[in-house]
Amino acid sequence: MGGSSSLCTNKYGEGLSSAATLPQVFMNNLANDMHVPVHLHKYKDVHYLVAEPQQTESARSAILYFHGNCDTVNSSSDELAKILASYFNRAVYIFEFPGYGESANHGSPTPKSTSKAGKTIFKMLSEKYANVDIIAHSIGTAVAIRTIALGVQPNKLVLISPLTTTTKVVTCNIPAFNAFDSIKLLKHIKCPVCVIHGDADSVIDVTHGQELFDALPDTLSKILHIIPGADHDDIMSETTFDHIRTFLE
């Protein structure tokens, strides 16, 4: 469930929203950094993008991004990978859910298949980098949490516009995603967590972010940022990225 002005529709119910957009002013400010190359790869049937600045602050750290409902490696993910790599000055990997874009012929996007793909790429990165941080948006937060429940442990976890359960969000029938219940799986998280949500989110209400944050174990280091006026579509702002950068430092 990402977001932009135009709706994305297909048999997986993606008509609810489309890919997350980036404010033009923000894009203009980073125009000089857009030379960051982005490459498409495939590992064990999982397609992923990698964007890596030529000079990174930490060659031993990487970010694994879990995309929203209408993102693919051929759409907004390419642009987002460049922005993330430039802003955080580290390698960024964005993998594609089965059933999406280049991965359309690799099964349906179920909780099991998407989290399995996430685990596959995370394990690949853990062999190359000492620290792997996870950033996830929208339905990607549910996939990320379920991936962690499969036994992977990121260095830090950022959840943007998260949902508690898909059944509390979806207003039409999306069988593939109806089994996500993030609240039940929070006990598997062992790393610091940053939750970010817009108080004007028209797709996943801000109460989801607050409820999920409150349900995180008190033993965890956790922080919640509510972005005034931010909707589901425009949450990827400079304000949001500043919060993430501070958290990851």
Describe the overall structure:
There is one protein chain. The chain has 249 residues and is α/β, with parallel strands linked by helices. The protein has seven helices and eight strands, in the order H-E-E-E-H-E-H-E-H-E-H-E-H-E-H. The protein has one domain (14-248): 3-Layer(aba) Sandwich (Rossmann fold), CATH 3.40.50. Helix content is 29%, strand content 18%. It has an eight-stranded mixed β-sheet, with helices on both faces. Strand 1 and strand 2 (46-51) form a beta hairpin. Helix 3 (111-126) packs across helix 4. The protein is globular, with a radius of gyration of 16 Å.
Compose a concise summary of this entry.
The chain has 249 residues and is of the alpha/beta class. The protein has helices spanning 24-29, 76-88, 111-126, 139-149, 182-185, 206-215, 238-248, and strands at residues 38-43, 46-51, 61-66, 91-95, 131-137, 157-160, 193-198, 222-227.
How would you describe this structure in keywords?
Rossmann fold; alpha/beta; 8 strands; 249 residues; 29% helix; disordered N terminus; 8-stranded mixed β-sheet
Write the layout of secondary structure elements.
Blueprint: H1 24-29, E1 38-43, E2 46-51, E3 61-66, H2 76-88, E4 91-95, H3 111-126, E5 131-137, H4 139-149, E6 157-160, H5 182-185, E7 193-198, H6 206-215, E8 222-227, H7 238-248
Parallel strand pairs: 3-4, 3-5, 5-6, 6-7, 7-8
Antiparallel strand pairs: 1-2, 2-4
Helix pairs in contact: 3-4
